[in-house]
Amino acid sequence: MQSGQHVILMGAQGAGKGTQAERLAPKLGLVHFSTGEAFRAAIAQQTELGVAAKAFLDRGDLVPDDVTIGIVAAKLASIRVAASESGLGGALFDGFPRTKAQAEGLAAELKQQGESIAAVIEIAVPLDDLVERLSGRRVCSNGHVYHERFNPPQVSGVCDVDGLPLIQRADDTTEAIKRRLDLYFELTTPLLEYYQDLGLLHQVDGLQSIDRVEAEILAVLDQYT
Q1: 5-126+182-224: which CATH number, 3.20.20.120, 3.40.50.300, 3.40.50.720, 3.40.50.80?
Q2: Is 111 in the active site?
Q3: What's the pLDDT tens digit per position in 168-202?
Q4: I need a surface site. Which of 24, 110, 118, 127 has the fewest CB within 10 A?
């Protein structure tokens, strides 16, 4: 990808966008932009926006779009510096934007810098399959992650790495997952329509193998390189 061109990777929790982002970013010459990491860095550095975001998070509130956009803009500024020094292109957004308002804010920020979104890729996975993927997840207290069907431990209920018991997190129960996914689709539908209207949206079947999903995304983005 050329400098100043960015790609957005979308998909519900469990669709595999994080895995794909890690694989794709180096191949595309893009910086993997994880919004969560940008938030953690701003909070750790105690920037003005980081302090504001932490106050909302500590109260259990959603961070307002203007604060989120500000943190994203600051991270993009650092990406531009890195791009000029390393020859990398723009960012591969993973988990951002999440709402139409955030998408419009991002578009305005990029326009000011003479930059643009090249493409938006949605990794599409049906709701029932997402629930199965997420509800089968098991973790140990050190954070090692398994799946009862897709990535089981050698000994049932025991972590391969450190021998600790594996548990299902409270937010990985079927009921909690469905509530989370319902909210995701409610917020995301207008966002997908927004990018569809702009002619930027491409959909990839997320039920395929990881390698096949990656190959299809690369095939879509090949026209923009």
Answers
A1: 3.40.50.300
A2: no
A3: 988 788 888 898 899 889 989 999 999 999 999 99
A4: 127
